[in-house]
Amino acid sequence: MQSGKPARERILDAAHELMLTVGLSRATTKEIAKGAGCSEAALYKHFASKEELFIRVLTERLPRLAPLLSSLTAEPGRGTLEENLTEIAREAALFYEQSFPIAASLYAETQLKRRHDEAMREMGTGPHLPIEGLDAYLRAEQAAGRVRADADTFAAASLLLGACAQRAFAYDAAVLPEAEPFAARLARTLLAALR
To answer: Which UniProt keywords apply (predicted)?
Structure first.
């Protein structure tokens, strides 16, 4: 870790690295603080809980889908629909690829999952937000006439993001389809149903 970085950044870096290597359930705040070169008390000055730290790792250290969706929704008609869907699918595929090893242990421990769900509700975040964001983008494109008026935008958003999550879940790293061609194929297939 770079000692010149602010403590919050060092903590996020250490948490990200530790969560990737040992998983969320085994990454302790003590080990994260040690990796960041600070005390646990310093860690808790920046993050209220391990759950908040995990959510911040997801939102600040992994590919960022929400800002992309927000900018596309604000400017429907920018770029081609195929290019935009490909970019969304690529970012989502990379996000799920990187977050799955970290979050997998959530589903093995009921209490950890419950604490995590509570923290997400308190912070106003959760796995439903990308689907809602993509749905909003597709509805904006629908209003602009680039998506069929009768297209089910929520189902399309669910299919695209579900496929990206399934890619991370179903394949081990040795056979994981490359993100770029996977995203392009997914976008072309979805586009056929939206036009």
So the answer is: DNA-binding, Transcription, Transcription regulation
Instruction: Give the Å distances, CA to CA, from 56 to 48, 78, 79, 135.
Output: 11, 30, 30, 24
| 10 close to 45: Cβ distance less than 8 angstroms | no
How far lies 149's CA from each of 155, 162, 194, in Å?
Answer: 14, 23, 9
CA atoms within 13 A on the CB side of 31: 13
| Residue with tokens 């596309």, as numbered in its chain | 72
Taking the model in full, what pTM does it have? 0.79
- Per-residue pLDDT band for 1 (boundaries 50, 70, 90) equals very low
**Nearest alpha carbon to residue 91 among 52, 130, 125, 118:** 130
Residue 3, phi then psi, degrees to nearest 5: -70, -20
14 Cα distance to chain centroid: 19
Q: Which domains does the chain have, with CATH numbers?
A: 7-59 (1.10.10.60), 63-194 (1.10.357)
The pair phi, psi for residue 95, each rounded to 5°, is: -60, -50
Instruction: Tell me the per-residue pLDDT of 57-102, one tens digit each, with 9 for 90 and over.
Output: 888 887 788 889 999 999 999 999 999 999 999 999 998 888 887 7
> Looking only at Cα atoms, what is the longest distance across the chain?
56
